[in-house]
Design a protein that fits this description.
The protein has twelve helices and twelve strands. It is α/β, with parallel strands linked by helices and 333 residues long. The protein has a domain of 202 residues: NAD(P)-binding Rossmann-like Domain (Rossmann fold). Strands 3-2-1-4-5-6-10 form a seven-stranded parallel sheet, sandwiched between helices. A three-stranded mixed sheet has the order 7-9-11. A two-stranded parallel ribbon has the order 8-12. Helix 1 links the parallel strand 1 and strand 2. The structure holds nicotinamide-adenine-dinucleotide and thymidine-5'-diphospho-beta-D-xylose. Thymidine-5'-diphospho-beta-D-xylose binds next to helix 6 and strand 8. Nicotinamide-adenine-dinucleotide binds next to helix 1, strand 2, helix 4, strand 5 and strand 7.
Amino acid sequence: MRLLITGGAGFIGSHFIRYLLQAYPKYRIVNLDKLTYAGNLDNLRDVEENPHYRFAQGDICDPVMVNTLAQEVDVIVNFAAETHVDRSILEPGGFIRTDVHGTYILMEAARRFNHRRYLQISTDEVYGSIQTGAFTEDSPLQPNSPYAASKAAGDLLVLSYTRTYGFPAILTRCSNNFGPNQYPEKIIPLFVTHALEDQPLPLYGDGRNVRDWIYVLDHCAAIDIALHHGKTGEVYNIGGGNERTNIELTHLILNELDKPASLIRSVTDRPGHDRRYALSDQKIRALGYRPRHPFEETLRETVRWYRDNPAWWQKIKSGTFRHYYDQQYAGRW
Ligand code: NAD
Ligand code: TDX
């Protein structure tokens, strides 16, 4: 298989590239990434000399760039996106551009070169919030943030292509990922690195919002299954089965680092903050998927990874991150 992986310099995409190179040493991978603030080639240092891997810096919204690369491959896996809910509230434009228009540009290229598979990596956030029970793939889409709405728009465009053109696409919708190399704007790496620096941890609202956590390598394994065994036009939910409130999660992090609960600061809530996410993942389980990484053990390993790799996150936090952080949390303390 020859694959164009987009957004491969980000958190999940970089893990997926490493996963594929190990699991399928004969596959050839081109990684197209714009290197936005979230793209980081440090995430891929260990594979950059692999003869089956190549990096191209560029934008999925650039049809010339996309067509040039698409003609060399037969599959696209689209991870490229603007991904942070809080940033989408501050500046939604980039989300609509990349997550919607970028998806269209990629699919047009895949159609033009008769690709055999297109995989769109999406999120549980498109379903909105659920008080009890779990969303199935047939649940209505009720996105509550500009990020979730732009992902939902991308999803609907992908599904429309499968019905209108018989386009060979599959969609996956995953719950909250965690692991090494996650940009420290998301709650786990933000709180771990802040705690390591004895900085206050900004917990939104009452801290009782619930997320279902999945270790990033379980997500990669599920994408592998969807890619090789999924059916055109189908959506597959991918869950971790690890629901925790944010306050529970925060205490697990603090305990692992032996840091005091006094670091927790309650701050003004996120507007439109989804209370709870939960997915039914029976459909991908029927294809053989099982999450294999126990939550508390892999969370501990993840916390230790940030503790043991300060150079990775200090470089980020000493750069443009600071400007974002000051803007994001101003007036909320
Ligand atoms: P990330 O923010 O860490 O990485 C995104 C990558 O996309 C970066 O490398 C960035 O440079 C690149 N990118 C952004 N705009 C681009 C453009 N216009 N052209 C080319 N590259 C561009 O994100 P992530 O957490 O790794 O998420 C990857 C995908 O998985 C996203 O589609 C996201 O919606 C989805 N997802 C994430 C989670 C999660 O918990 N992180 C859960 C479910 C689904
Ligand atoms: O400083 C914070 N304080 C806080 O209490 C941050 C950054 C977050 N939170 C809360 C908000 C959420 O309830 O923690 C929870 C998780 O927040 P994020 O890490 O921002 O993730 P979330 O909003 O749940 O979205 C994530 O999961 C689905 C990813 O960012 C998305 O890319 C993915 O699609």
